């Protein structure tokens, strides 16, 4: 009697070849961008170690000092203007990142993504390690750290347009919000891991808080070189359909000869290899796609809020709740945990309703009063702090995650492009590049405003949330019109 197939093998064989490769690419790109954010996070953890309250630190008996107030600080951050200096370091990275992002997408459309990502991660690892080496080489020059931040900001722009373009090449429009909402948790996972790794070393040897993440991202760059597959056609897998039949209308199908799907599963017919002879889209051409401008400007203010928390939350917790550097870093990870849930929820809701703009707008409106409450009652006790960080993280990072993933992919494969599959990286770079301007402004303004009180920083963040909503008002109105007419549910931007 022939024995039945083992349960484990039945499970494995139930997945098609295409599904296995798509899952592998999703995991691989998740790992890549996790390492990017992992390498960015240490500076926010180390800030509270570079400038400390030395009166609470036990001074070594054999230490000969001349200044009792700053003996434990790391020059040049031992001055009264240390918050401004931290703001300069943040903006050396973020301004370069914002400027470089606009060009990164253009390069990403013209250079093989595997090479582009591999080189970017290796260089990111190098500059992250060089920052940490300043501890061991006893470097106290602001210029040294500023130049490294500039270079790191430039090479880090290789990450986002490339990974979004790669995922967009492998996944069609169906349930894109949910898939990319889960996938986009790499941002929060990277922040959490970066905080935890940096926290292990911050109090003993803060240089290792940079060197370890630098080694990790360099290793993932090597992994990328050996295993990344840019397009499904490269290994004879079935390309996805970016538009459903009702979305297409009179627009030509994105891929002629594309196999039909039944109940979401791909038929077993051999895939037709489609050569892509279209030219990469121009910057102005990408900017003219309906919805790109509105979502770009919305992301500018949404990312301003998110990155202010990314770079300043540990210091805020340390100053207001009086935690030490490690405890403040660990507590700040709750904001990113909330961000994971918020990103997934935003994707699921926008998939179900077909309203990307409305989903973002509702979450941004809810975030404003929550930020006010967190600043006023968030530090009363541990339970309140945990709850408020989780809620604020979900509401702040939810719209940010949705715009940078599903919205960017939707617009990069918009039906007005008539099948030009080479626009995705450029569109992603425009949207994220504009958002990165806000990411640079937020920490800069926080550094300038925080000496006058943390209340003023939160008023700035609430104002940014309101402005982000205003830029989506036209798109929200269009989506509401579609619902009122009881039109068939549209998963994307047909009405824009």
TrEMBL record:
GO terms for molecular function: glucose 6-phosphate:phosphate antiporter activity. InterPro entries: MFS, MFS_dom, MFS_trans_sf, SLC37A1_2, Sugar_P_transporter. The keyword Nucleotide-binding does not apply. SUPFAM superfamilies: MFS general substrate transporter (SSF103473). Residues 28-480 form the Major facilitator superfamily (MFS) profile domain. CDD domains: MFS_SLC37A1_2 (cd17344). It is a multi-pass membrane protein. GO terms for biological process: phosphate ion transmembrane transport. Pfam families: MFS_1. It comes from the Eukaryota. This is Glucose-6-phosphate exchanger SLC37A2. It comes from Pleuronectes platessa (European plaice).
